[in-house]
């Protein structure tokens, strides 16, 4: 096929992408335009004859400066969003160019083998059981779904029930034990799996958001029947880790399945300095994490890991007469994820891991944690600013004048000011600013400039109130 239809448009797209990246370090970090402006620029009746492709690209690119948040900026600290490491972005372009359906080996041996190797590298990097099953999904939401589907299969099979064949009607009720600080995606996965949320057993957490092991033991002693425990490695607000080794011992005592929500915390295992935070995580039965957080690959890429490969496969695999599925050692992705048709998500993971190596991933994690501590230290020097959490990882919770309204006003003011972008949360009934440092490019200068901007906005608000 001739390149003529593609080459001019690809050149044009590359030029727009390069310009967007060139402007990234100095641009207003938040979005400047809202729905009305974007609709005004982009809405039109669906054309009868169609428009020239280059004009459409120009139209879209022209809105990017105002209509996007600079999520890949080195001063974007919202929602635990990583940037895009250069080789990851380039590899993702190749994924789109190849346009492979990564569902089964026969369609794309290249993608199958790349994802097989990437999976092995991840297990090695995290020092998890090497026999585990690994699937590349959209994000941690579907990683939880996948892992908890395996958990549902395992605990009900042990109770003598085939949930894949019989469904849940008439099945033994599964006890679902979660932290009071569990992420909402755990609840959503329970809903998707038909397990429900009304009867979740929520275990009290301590001041940093860690599950209290004494409360877990009390609750487990009162339960009977198949049980799934969900622990957390990296609280979404504080970055704190549940006492995983102790939780694993309780799960083992009661024959419960232990799943760990480690959306970003699992990457601490790659760091000699921070790995001890996740002590005991290797004892779990399943783990969910994201590559589009700390590995800084483009959206979307989550990772589901299940210790027992055959349980993982039994919960996910599908067969059909028309499919040509592997009967040998070749990897069919459909065995490990809910998707049939899917993007080759493992390719940017492979490219980034091979480019960074162990030392590079460790450096990435350590730098982000250091920048979080730097920002916390700078902000704590200002009278009226309080850091609410122990900064053990990459998360910082900040409160201003011990006042909900002022704290929320500072957050909005910082977003409008544009040096950096961050969001808010409610922590133990208090409004708080939430800073998450997850970008490979965030430097000491970025942290200093961002902290200075936050202090500047706070001082302006204080001055306006004549405090």
UniProtKB/TrEMBL annotation:
Pfam families: Pyridoxal_deC
UniProt keywords, alphabetically: Decarboxylase, Lyase, Pyridoxal phosphate
UniProt keyword annotation of Lyase present: yes
Domain of life: Bacteria
Alphabetical list of SUPFAM superfamilies matching this protein: PLP-dependent transferases
Keyword Protein biosynthesis among record annotations: no
Record-linked InterPro entries: Aromatic_deC, PyrdxlP-dep_de-COase, PyrdxlP-dep_Trfase, PyrdxlP-dep_Trfase_major, PyrdxlP-dep_Trfase_small
Necessary cofactors: pyridoxal 5'-phosphate
Family per record: Belongs to the group II decarboxylase family.
Name the record gives this protein: Pyridoxal phosphate-dependent decarboxylase family protein
